[in-house]
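Hi F.,

I've been meaning to write this up properly since the lab meeting, where we talked about keeping a consistent format for the predictions we share between groups. The idea is simple: the sequence comes first, exactly as it goes in, then the structure tokens exactly as they come out, then a line or two of notes. No screenshots and no reformatting. I'm using this chain as the first example so we have something concrete to point to.
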Amino acid sequence: MKKYKKWGIAFAVIAIIGFSGFFFRKQIAVLAFDMFLSGHVEETLDKSYKPIEGKEEVIRKVTEPFSVLLLGVDQRDKEIGRSDTIIYSVVRPQDNKVLLLSIPRDAYTEIIGKGFKTKLNHAYAYGGAKMSMESVDNLLNHKVDHYATINFNGLKDVVDALDGVKLPITKDIVNKDPNHEKFRIEANKPIYNGQEALYFVRYREDSDMNRTMRHRIFLNSVMERAIEMDKIARIPELIEIMGDNFTTDMRPKYMIDLAKTMFTQDDPPQISSYMLHGDGKMMDNVWYYMVDDEDLEYVQKLLNNWLDASTPKAELMAPRPMRED
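Output, unedited:
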């Protein structure tokens, strides 16, 4: 009887550990990260830390809302490149919510520091992340707290390290323009590899609205894939892969604490998306995207809501005014 009792206690202990591991698997994953990976990840992220010269650093709690300008840079070799993707995002860690506001790269606006108007994506070529941040700040009339850039050349390897991503492609995507790189992305595949994801992001033979929508879809897909339990252990590998392809002015420890805060929530981060509306216009034989003034006002109200920590979750997405086409 004593023998059976000992085995019974042993099985009970194993069961308790097993159930605890299931119900508290996120907390256990974070604990394991702190014990074995945190130091290495912070050291690796430090290589990508590039503060903006002359910009005062603001210390905030990891639970406070903040904005970050996401710039996808189409850069090859040693050229400076332009920001092919421009997304003003707002992160609300306490609510586990993220807003992705796409700004068309051809948006006609003033380039702060140059004193003239042209396409917004030129700002990065003229003055890097600093000029991009200041120009977006001026356009939206909202401060950009941080920036993060990723070179599209590093995107492919990141996706492959995640064993691909899920993309809602229901019809084959084919680049047909003779001046563009030739490719075809097959529809309805369960998983798309890095090269296919890169093509998905770069495809530009339809509207700006669809293109910016694909950028938001891609970011959402990568985020969802990265927070899957079996992918957590690959975070150091992902950061190593990004290497010189990723830069930001967010301190490594802050990013780690932010990631842990959002990862340990009950549900995955909820992402809301919006694109700054407007219309195309030719000026001096150059095509520009002219931002709609009424929609710009709406976006500014939207950002007010998201950046205000006191805004209830139910009131974040204000009703959008109807456009007269």
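Notes:
DSSP finds nine helices and twelve strands in the chain.
Confidence is low (pLDDT under 50) at residues 3-37.

If this format works for you, I'll send the rest the same way.

G.
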